[in-house]
Amino acid sequence: MEEKLKKICCIGGIDADIICSPVPAFPPMGKGITLDSMRFTIGGCAGNTALDLARLGVGSILFCKLGEDQMGRSVLKELMDVGVDVRGIHLDTEVETGVSIVMVDPVSGERTFFYTPFSSTYFESRDIDLEIADESDIVFVGGALQLERFDGFPCAAFLRRARERGQITAMDTGWDTTGRWLPSIQAALPFVDFFMPSFDEAVELAGGERDPEAMARFFQSLGVANVVIKMGKKGAFVRDALGSMFIAPAYSGVKAVDTTGAGDSFCAGFLTGLELGYDLKGCAVLANAVASFCVQAHSAYGGIPPLSDVLAFKERQEHDYYIELL
């Protein structure tokens, strides 16, 4: 990058991940299986995206809540070691750091999660230092639907203020184990410039609709400007504020060994494109390229290289890559 980019502000979910691999099937009750590896890493939408941005060299400021406990201190140290700006992180003696146990299928690389959200559940508006958040051009809420005290009207107020200041606003969602779905975040949607749920989360939010265009139209009817639906190995569906649509396919020939954090790395790539001034097609292509690196490593962020390497990969693949206009 020739010029210094502003750090992107990431807000929301973070936890400690224990990644277990391979887990071809769950053993019967009372039995066990032997694993090749069990690794500690960082998880959560906002945490992963912030780490990905730092590894790309774009830079990130992270606002989240951790417990003042061993897990929380380990997570904080890792964030600092990777280069995330941690001025917005609160260590709270009254809560425990959330932990996710991630089981990785050896064939598909897909995951099953068992988690305790804990500290992210207690994250709220007063945990955001607005002077620090104002240093960014882009504010990203990661893990919406899992931020019990921030979802909905508090998030709406924050994003409204960001919009009024001229900042770009973006939101990704996490799986809603409460089953409330849309009512939890609907108040904030009119203030979201880029809404980036996974396909499965979008289906739940749209009341069971499975057609990407219909889902996008539904979210836009609620006030969202641009919709980006992450579709895993199928790539991403994008519908912009003017109604133009396209599919950016995932890169072919990429062998996925672990899809943990793939959606978060996609968000990091897309936000990087916005910061670089790319159009939406360019943002989606860059996002898929970043995600390609993510899924080839056994970590949500360990496989993310500097942005120059991602751009070189993207350039090498250009002759075989086609955007599908709709």
UniProtKB/TrEMBL annotation:
Signal peptide: none annotated. Residues 6-303 form the Carbohydrate kinase PfkB domain. PROSITE patterns: PFKB_KINASES_1, PFKB_KINASES_2. GO terms for molecular function: kinase activity. The keyword Kinase applies. Keywords: Kinase, Transferase. Coiled coil: none annotated. The keyword Transferase applies. PANTHER family: RIBOKINASE (PTHR10584:SF166), SUGAR KINASE (PTHR10584). This is Carbohydrate kinase family protein. It comes from Zongyangia hominis.
